[in-house]
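User: I'm writing a tutorial on reading structure tokens. Could you give me a worked example: one chain, its sequence, then its tokens, then a sentence or two explaining what the tokens reveal?
Assistant: Sure. Here is the example chain.
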Amino acid sequence: MFVLCEQCPLRRRPMFRPFSEIELSFVAEMKTDHIVVAPRIDIIRQGEVGGPVYTLFEGWAIRYQQLPSGARQILDILLPGDMVGLASALLGTINHSVQAITPATLCVLSGRDWRDLFAHHPAVALNQLQTRVEEEQRSDVRLSLLGRSNAEQRIGYLMLETFDRLRQRGMVNGGSTCPFPLQRRDIADAAGLSRVHVARTLERLRQRRLAQIQDGVLVLFDRARLADLVGYVPLRPAAGRRAIL
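And here are its predicted structure tokens:
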């Protein structure tokens, strides 16, 4: 499959800003391919040198590091519209891996040098920089809270943050449910817990009628109570609509 940038359905979502014809033409020149990746396949690998940059078009992925002990730490969940592998273009190498956790499709962005983006489309480049800073701030808040919280708080925070990120993208159909294809091993590696601990914590959250994950769907029974329990910091409004590449 190859989705033309001019026909990209992601661009019509409220989260992403409209492009001028000139900007869209430039991005179309960047895109060289549209690939399909099966679940549990690495898109990029830690230590890779000079790999391409991608935009996640469909599906979910995780950004993670493999520790010397063999343990895996999930650093973030990647959703449609997120960029993958930007460090390769800017730094030449990358210190994390990215793996699809559902069937995923990605736009391959290797047709133009990234320096051209800054030289010819500074507004788009600045928007990308703002997005990276906002993502860093989101990561900082989550890291500071997860480092000082218990299992229920860690998992509850992950649930609420993921729900809100999906809602920003228009991927929550109202109400209190959303897709949540992470398996227990993924939740464990994202929250720094064992799988047994995750199973017990999910059961406690269900019994307390706060939240439940079943058959790949997250249900927030009582968002207000869950947010109060975990000390959830709602996502800050973005500085502007994102420029999707």
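What the tokens reveal: The chain is about 40% helix and 20% strand. Residues 5-138 form a domain with the Jelly Rolls fold (CATH 2.60.120.10).
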